[in-house]
């Protein structure tokens, strides 16, 4: 009986190795949770929005060529968004200032404007500049080639 009591006393509790593994796992999960709870940086949000807009402009140009019809990306400065027939609506960061330099004929209102792409690949051209406190991005569309270029500074 005494021997059985000694064996059961030895088996009770956790070893040092088991305790260290549990502490390491808790630290790993806490580090992951901190990254998920923290909002992304302003520069990262601007870069993501810039890449999405460039992709949308390129896809819209490709659709214009493929369907042999004029298509356009419409910018809504009041809502800080743009609409493409290919990708739907895209949003700019809420803290971004948006400057739209487009042809006068493409100004729909003082808060709405468009960049149109034609069946031969050309476009009306224009520049979109996004400025946040952390970064600045310029998206340019060449009127002759319709090519969209993106630069983050």
Main traits of this protein?
38% helix, 153 residues, four-stranded antiparallel beta sheet, 28% strand, alpha+beta, 8 strands, elongated
Task: Kindly describe this structure.
The protein has 153 residues and is an alpha+beta fold. Helices cover 38% and strands 28% of the residues. It is built from three helices and eight strands. The strands form two sheets. The chain has a four-stranded antiparallel β-sheet with strand order 3-2-1-5, with helices on one face. A four-stranded antiparallel β-sheet has the order 4-6-7-8, covered by helices on one side. A hairpin with a 4-residue loop joins β6 and β7. The longest helix has 26 residues. The model has no long low-confidence stretch (mean pLDDT 90).
Q: Roughly what percent helix?
A: 25-40%
Calculate the mean pLDDT score and round it: 90
**Any idea what the shape is?**
elongated
The structure class reads alpha+beta
- The total count of helices amounts to 3
Determine the strand fraction and express it as a percent band: 25-35%
Largest sheet: 4 strands, antiparallel
What is the terminal separation in angstroms? Answer: 78 Å
Task: Report Rg.
Answer: 27 Å
Strands across the major sheet, in which order? 3-2-1-5
Task: Describe the structure in brief.
With 153 residues, the chain is an alpha+beta fold. It has 3 helices and 8 strands.
């Amino acid at each position: 009986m005494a021997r059985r009591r000694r064996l059961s006393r030895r088996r009770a509790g956790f070893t040092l190795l088991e305790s260290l593994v549990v502490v390491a796992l808790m630290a790993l999960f806490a580090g992951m949770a901190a990254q998920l709870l923290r909002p992304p940086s302003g520069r990262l949000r601007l870069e993501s929005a810039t890449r999405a807009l460039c992709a949308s402009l390129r896809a819209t140009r490709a659709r214009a060529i493929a369907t042999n019809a004029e298509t356009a990306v419409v910018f809504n400065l009041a809502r800080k968004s743009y609409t493409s027939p290919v990708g739907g609506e895209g949003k700019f960061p809420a803290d971004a200032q948006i400057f739209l330099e487009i042809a006068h004929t493409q100004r729909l209102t003082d808060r709405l404007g468009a960049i149109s792409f034609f069946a031969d690949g050309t476009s009306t051209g224009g520049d979109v500049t996004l400025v946040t406190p952390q970064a600045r991005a310029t998206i340019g569309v060449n009127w002759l080639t319709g090519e969209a270029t993106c630069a983050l500074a």
